[in-house]
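2024-03-11 09:14:02 INFO receiving multi-entity request
2024-03-11 09:14:02 INFO entity count = two
2024-03-11 09:14:03 INFO echoing inputs for audit
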Amino acid sequence: DTGVSQNPRHKITKRGQNVTFRCDPISEHNRLYWYRQTLGQGPEFLTYFQNEAQLEKSRLLSDRFSAERPKGSFSTLEIQRTEQGDSAMYLCASSLEGGLAHEQFFGPGTRLTVL
Amino acid sequence: GDSVTQMEGPVTLSEEAFLTINCTYTATGYPSLFWYVQYPGEGLQLLLKATKADDKGSNKGFEATYRKETTSFHLEKGSVQVSDSAVYFCALGTNAGKSTFGDGTTLTVKP
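2024-03-11 09:21:47 INFO inference complete, emitting structure
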């Protein structure tokens, strides 16, 4: 399967702990995006990379959140000192710069539950 | 900023009924428009797309036409099936990179 993959699929943690998620995009895609989706809402943009450069960060992304894409391939999203409000589905997507219709391909998501 | 407004749900239809889910948008520039579908327990899948005004996207019997004059991209299907039950998201994408999504419309089709 050459689609976008995310790990882990589920994460349960206690408030105050740090968590890290990984995303592996489609191999030839140079853009990678992170979104957050809560129940009953559409995905909300968090940040995106073009190759290894982080080009945009949403105001939703507090100082506790950090994302990296060190070699322009996979990406990690870390949340420090998790809060119950961080509970959500974290989605990763990838695309080609200038690709047809800016189409993004989504991974299955990582569901985070903060107790 | 960019925004997408979708018809509120949930929507419940009988099998073979006609479906319309309304979507309007606000964007700077010339966005591409998308409908994504999320089946129970699965990730987002692209259903159809349109890249410029008057384009019609279609897939699996679903259609949507990019209407610049009304800033709309309504999703339609002539005869829904039980298997179409899912959450449908309207979205726009621009050269700036990110996509902006509506809040989703839950469709339930009853036999």
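2024-03-11 09:21:48 INFO post-check: Chain A has a mean pLDDT of 91.
2024-03-11 09:21:48 INFO post-check: Residues 83 and 95 of chain A are 31 Å apart (CA to CA).
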